[in-house]
Amino acid sequence: MDPVLLGEILAGLMFFGIIGVLMLGFPVAFSLAGASLIFGLIGWYFGVFDLSNLGALSSRYLGLMINEVLVAVPLFIFMGVMLERSRIAEQLLSTMGRLFGNLRGGLGMSVIVVGALLAASTGVIGATVVTMGLISLPAMMRAGYDPRLACGVICASGTLGQIIPPSTVLIFMGDMLSGINAQVQMAQGNFAPTTVSVGDLFAGAIFPGLMLVGLYLLFMVFKAIVAPQTCPATPIPPEERAGLWKEIAVALLPPLALIAAVLGSILGGVATATEAASVGAVGATVLAAARWRLSFKVLREVAQSTALITSMIFIILFGASVFAIVFRLMGGDNLVREFLVSLPGGVIGAVLVVMAIMFVLGFILDTFEIIFIVVPITAPILLHLGVDPIWLGVMIGVNLQTSFLTPPFGFAIFYLRSVAPSSISTMMIYRGVIPFVFIQVFAMFLLFVFPDIALWLPRQIYG
C-alpha cells in the first residue's frame, strides 16, 4: 500500500480511536498521549512514522512552560477561586434576587445577570454553577419555579465564563491562533504577518457574550408571558426595600471595579493579559481581605485549588502535543485539508462542518480536550482559506460553551447535580438545559451571519 495513504488511514484511525478511549472514561491526558504513542509505534512498524520526531516534545513542552501569555491562566484561576472564597457571588445573588423579585421571572433574570457579572470577574465555571445552585436553586423552588427552568437558567448562566472575558479558553485560543495565523501568512508569502493577541479575542468576545446574556433574558421574559406559572414573582415587603439600593451598590461596585481594572487595562492597551491577570489576582485578594475572608488557611486552599485546576489543564495540553506531532507527521493534516477543501460551499461549507464536528464532540468531550485536539488540525486550513482568526476564535468559544450543557457529559449538569436536592432528577436538569442549548446555537447562527458582532470592537480598539 502507498505509504502516504497508509499514514493518512492510521491518522484517521488514531483520531477516532482516541475519541473511543475517552468515551470509555480513561483519563484525558494519558489517553491522548498513550493512544498517540501506540499509533506512532504502529506507524513506525509500517515505515510511515519516524520515532525520532518525538524528540521535538521536549522543546515544545519547554516552550509551553516559558510562554508568558499562558502565565495568565493560573493567575486568572487564582482570581476566580479567591473571589469565590470572598462570597461575592452570595451577596450578588441575594441582592439581585430582591431587586428583580417583584417581576415574574425576576429570580431567573437575577441569576442570569449575576452569572454574567461572575463570568467577567471570575470565569471559574464549576464554582459559579455550584454557588448559584446552592443559593438560587432553593430560593427558586420556594418561589414555585418549574424545576426544569430553574436548573436550565443556573447551568446556562454559570457557563457564561466560557465566552465572557477573562476566559481561560480564550487565552489558550488566542495563543494557538496567534502562532497558527503567523505560520499561515508566512506560508502565503507575507513575512510581516498581522498579529492576533489574547486582547483581540477578549475584545471580540464581549459583544457575543452580551448577546447571549440578552437572549437568555429574552427567554425568561418569554416564559413569564406565555407560562407565568413556571416563574412566579416573589414580592418583597416594603420595609425590606429601604436599604436595598445601598446593598446593591455594596454588592456591585467591588466586582465592577475589578472587571474595569482587568478588562479595561487589556482593551486599553495599558497591560497585557498576563499583567492584567496579576492585577486581578491581587485585586481579588484585597477584596477578600476587605470582607474579612482572608487568612492563611484560605490562601492555602486557594493556592491548592489553583494548582490542581492549572495542572489538569496543562497536562491535557501536554498529552495533546503528543497527539499533534503523531497526527501531523503521519499525514493527518493533509487528510483533513483535502476533506475540508473538497466540501461543497467552499469556505462556508468548511466552517460549517468544523463547527458541526466541534458541537457533536461537545456531547462527549470537555472544552479543553476539543480545542487541543481539533483547533491545531482545522484552524490552519480555515485560516488558509481566508477565515478571520478573531471571528473563528470567538465562534469556537461560543460553540464550545454548549459542551458544558449538552447531555450526557455536560459538566455544568454534573456540577449542579452534585448540589441539587434529591427531589430534582438528572433528567429534569437535562430537559432544563435543552432550550438554552438551542439559544446558543441561535447565537452561533447570528454570529455566522453577522461576523461584525465579533469583529467591530477589535477593529475599533486595535484598528
Write structural notes for this entry.
This protein has 463 residues and is mainly alpha-helical. It has one domain. Helix content is 75%, strand content 0%. It has helices spanning 3-23, 28-45, 56-65, 72-85, 88-100, 106-121, 125-142, 147-158, 168-187, 198-226, 244-267, 273-290, 296-329, 332-341, 346-361, 367-384, 389-401, 411-417, 426-449, 452-462. Helix 9 runs antiparallel to helix 17. It is globular. The chain starts with a helix and ends with a helix. The relative contact order is 0.15. The mean pLDDT is 88.
- Report how far apart the termini are: 52 Å
**Residue windows where pLDDT falls under 50 for at least 5 positions:** none
Q: Which strand-content bin applies to the residues?
A: under 5%
Query: Which percent bin holds the helix content?
Result: over 70%
Radius of gyration: 23 Å
What is the N-to-C order of secondary-structure elements (H for helix, E for strand)?
Answer: HHHHHHHHHHHHHHHHHHHH
Q: How many domains is the backbone divided into?
A: 1
**Count of discrete alpha- or pi-helical segments spanning 4 or more residues:** 20
Give the overall pLDDT as a whole number.
Answer: 88
Class by SSE composition = mainly alpha
Coarse shape: globular
How many runs of DSSP E, i.e. beta strands?
0
